[in-house]
Amino acid sequence: MSTHETLRTYLFGTLIPTPAESWPGDEADLFEAGMDSLRVMQLLVFVEDKLGVNLPDHEVTPERIGTVAALVGWIESHKKSR
Predict the structure, then answer these.
(1) pLDDT recorded at residue 82
(2) pLDDT of amino acid 70
(3) 46 neighbors 55 (Cβ within 8 angstroms)
(4) Share of the chain above pLDDT 90, in %
(5) Are the beta carbons of 34 and 65 closer than 8 angstroms?
(6) What percent of the chain has pLDDT over 70?
(7) Side-chain half-sphere of 30: how many Cα atoms within 13 Å?
(8) Residue pair 28/44 in contact by the 8 Å Cβ criterion
(9) Which range marks the domain in which residue 43 is found?
(10) For the chain, how many structural domains are there in total?
């Protein structure tokens, strides 16, 4: 499964439980979909455990985690810099 698919499945299947047919698009605001600070921390742990990418806490900004597209881009940029 790609980073994109893995992330979407976790976000909307587990972290922000949403029926599959109602999953928002990649540019939808995750905070409007139910993301909050606790879920952000859970997301960072998931990314490190399942994708093997450490996203530094000091780099977390709404712009980087506000949409699926932004989040995937941030994760991919850290994969390339390893």
Answers:
(1) 67
(2) 98
(3) no
(4) 84
(5) no
(6) 99
(7) 27
(8) no
(9) 3-18+25-80
(10) 1
Residues 6 or more apart in contact with residue 53 via CB below 8 angstroms:
47, 75, 78, 79, 82
Residue with tokens 């109602």: 22
> How far, rounded to the nearest angstrom, does the alpha carbon of residue 23 sit from its chain's CA centroid?
14
Closest CA to 77 of 57, 46, 54: 54
In this structure, which amino acid lies at residue 63? E
The Cα 53–Cα 68 span in angstroms is: 16
Give pLDDT, residue 80.
Answer: 79
The yes-or-no verdict on residue 21 having pLDDT over 90 is no
Question: In angstroms, rounded to a whole number, what is the distance separating the alpha carbons of residues 54 and 11?
Answer: 17
Query: What is the DSSP secondary-structure string of 15-76?
Result: IS---GGGPPPTTS-TTTTT--HHHHHHHHHHHHHHH-----GGG--HHHHSSHHHHHHHHH
CATH number for 33: 1.10.1200.10
Residues 49-55: what's their mean pLDDT? 96
